[in-house]
Every structure is written in C-alpha cells, then in structure tokens.
C-alpha cells in the first residue's frame, strides 16, 4: 500500500472516530435533564422552611419525608430522594438554620418540641390530612420521634440511620452503662455531647471553622462524598444540642416507650451500639438492619438493602 493511501486511511479512521464520539456526546447532551424538584416554603413561628418535592403528588403515591441532621443540610439525602421518587412522593426539607430555611434561631426556637412542630408544618403543607413515612438520620430522627410521641397516628413508618430517639437513647445508655467496659467505650460520645451542650462554646467552634474542617476531614478520610456544610448553618443550628440534649438524653427524658407502626433502624459502622441497647423493649415493632457505610455514603454502600427495607416498611403500613 502506498504511503499516501495509508496516511489517508489513517486520517479517515481518526475522523470517523471523532464523528462517532461527537455524535454520542450530542446524543447524550440531548437527553432530557433529571427532573428538578419542586421548591416551596412552609412557615412555622415566622421562620421560612425550605422544601423540595420529588416524583408524584401526595394524592398519587405514599409520601416519604426526609431531612438532615447536624452538621450539614438535607442534601445528604438528595441522591436517595431522586431514586425513591420513582415510587413515592418524596419531601426533602431543611430544618431551621440550614440551607435556604430561616437562620434567625435561639436555644428556645431550636428546642426539640419546636423542631417537631416545624416538621408538622411541612407535612401539613405537602401532604395535608395524610399519613407519612419518614427516612432520616440524627436530628431528623430525633424530631420525628418527638412528633410521633406528641401527635401519634400521623407517621406510618419511621426509618432512621442510627439511634431514632434522644429519649430512648437515654435508657439505652443507662442499660449499656451498667457494664464498665461499655461505659468506657461510651466516653467519647459523652464528652462530645457535653461539649456541644455548653454555653457559647459550640457557636465559637462553628464560627471559627473548626467544626467545618473537622467534619470535612472525617468525611474525606472515609471516602464519602462531600457534605454540604457552611459556617452560617453550623452556627445557627448547633444550639439544638444545648436546647434538648442535656434534658432528653441526660436527666429528664419525656418518654420511655414510643409506639409507632414500624420503627426501622439502619445501624451503620459509624453508630455506637450503646445508643440502641435494649431498644426493642421501648417500642412496639422494631426492625433492625445492619448496613455498610456511614450516614453520608449509605446511598453508595448499601442502597439496594436500604431501598428494599424501606419498600417493605411502607408496603406493610400503607394499607393498614
């Protein structure tokens, strides 16, 4: 074969390959973008609460509500919300002091009772008159358990990553603390919660950027995707620890038994078993599932299992 012909065929092959790649890129870019959530606001105590809704309406499918804990806003559940929206009406909202929600908070406004009633305002707006299912972690679990205690009947299933209730965790820590070895294991948690419950110190730590750097480093070291955090959010919402943790987890829990059709706990390696010790004796129907990953990467590490268990809980309670 002559060199000129060989050179021509080479150029032709490159051109054809480039055309194929360009065609694929154009085709991919022409695909419809992922459906954007419907954004709105509820209001409680004059504080605007930012809400995102996915999938069908509350009249067309069961409603599943999710929210974040601390630190970080509810975007920790963004991936899960989009996946679940193929089957459910999904409501993701940012609690006061997070995301686009109002940041004008105080210890009193950040109380567990107010966080629970804020949840009530969200479901009254997004699923009026209907029961809902919950999938949360951390403070999202604590406030929805509080809502169920104060307004039984509206939550059909409560699924939590880690401990579902501060009040019930009190009894778990008491029970596990009877073992000196377990008490020693719990000391880091006790010290951490104690520091977050002190006057002014949590806000100073958050405002300095220490909390953001500390949690960011922890998430990165675990190989988890970044969590949406900001100094403003962390300062505005950290007083929820001081507002409720010393009483509810410490010396004056409001209840020792929580009745809910299904309480589902996903226990991750991040969680201390001492926070749920004896939990089956403090609720009527406990489902416990061990998962891989952490609160920030469960969707990547254990999604098939988590999704299947959520489906079971919703199916078991939807037509009760």
UniProtKB/TrEMBL annotation:
Specify the signal sequence span.
1-30
Looking at the keywords, is Hydrolase present?
yes
Annotated GO MF terms: hydrolase activity
Residues in domain AB hydrolase-1?
62-168
Keywords assigned? Hydrolase, Signal
State one Pfam family annotation. Abhydrolase_1
Family annotation (Gene3D superfamilies): alpha/beta hydrolase
Q: What is this protein called?
A: Alpha/beta fold hydrolase
Tell me which species this is from.
Nocardia suismassiliense
């Amino acid at each position: 074969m002559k060199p000129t012909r060989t050179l021509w065929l080479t150029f032709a092959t490159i051109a054809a390959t480039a055309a194929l790649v360009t065609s694929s890129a154009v085709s991919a870019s022409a695909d419809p973008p992922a459906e954007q959530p419907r954004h709105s606001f509820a209001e409680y105590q004059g504080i605007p609460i930012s809400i995102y809704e996915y999938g069908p309406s509350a009249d067309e499918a069961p409603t599943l509500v999710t929210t974040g804990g601390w630190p970080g806003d509810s975007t920790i559940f963004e991936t899960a919300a989009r996946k679940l929206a193929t089957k459910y009406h999904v409501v993701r909202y940012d609690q006061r002091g997070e995301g686009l929600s109002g940041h004008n908070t105080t210890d009193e406004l950040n109380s567990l009772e107010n966080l629970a009633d804020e949840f009530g305002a969200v479901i009254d707006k997004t699923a009026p008159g209907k029961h809902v299912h919950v999938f949360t972690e951390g403070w999202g679990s604590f406030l929805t358990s509080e809502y169920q205690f104060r307004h039984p009947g509206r939550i059909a299933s409560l699924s939590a990553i880690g401990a579902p209730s501060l009040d019930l965790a009190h009894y778990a820590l008491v029970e596990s603390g009877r073992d000196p070895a377990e008490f020693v294991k719990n000391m880091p948690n006790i010290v951490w919660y104690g520091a977050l419950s002190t006057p002014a110190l949590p806000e100073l730590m958050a405002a300095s950027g220490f909390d953001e750097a500390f949690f960011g480093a922890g998430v990165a070291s675990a190989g988890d995707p970044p969590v949406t955090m900001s100094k403003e959010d962390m300062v505005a919402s950290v007083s929820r620890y001081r507002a409720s943790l010393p009483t509810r987890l410490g010396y004056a829990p409001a209840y020792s038994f929580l009745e809910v059709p299904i309480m589902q706990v996903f226990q991750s390696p991040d969680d201390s078993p001492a926070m749920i010790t004896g939990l089956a004796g403090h609720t009527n129907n406990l489902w416990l599932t061990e998962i891989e990953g952490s609160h920030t990467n469960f969707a990547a590490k254990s999604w098939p299992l988590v999704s299947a268990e959520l489906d079971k809980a919703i199916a078991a309670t939807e037509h009760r």
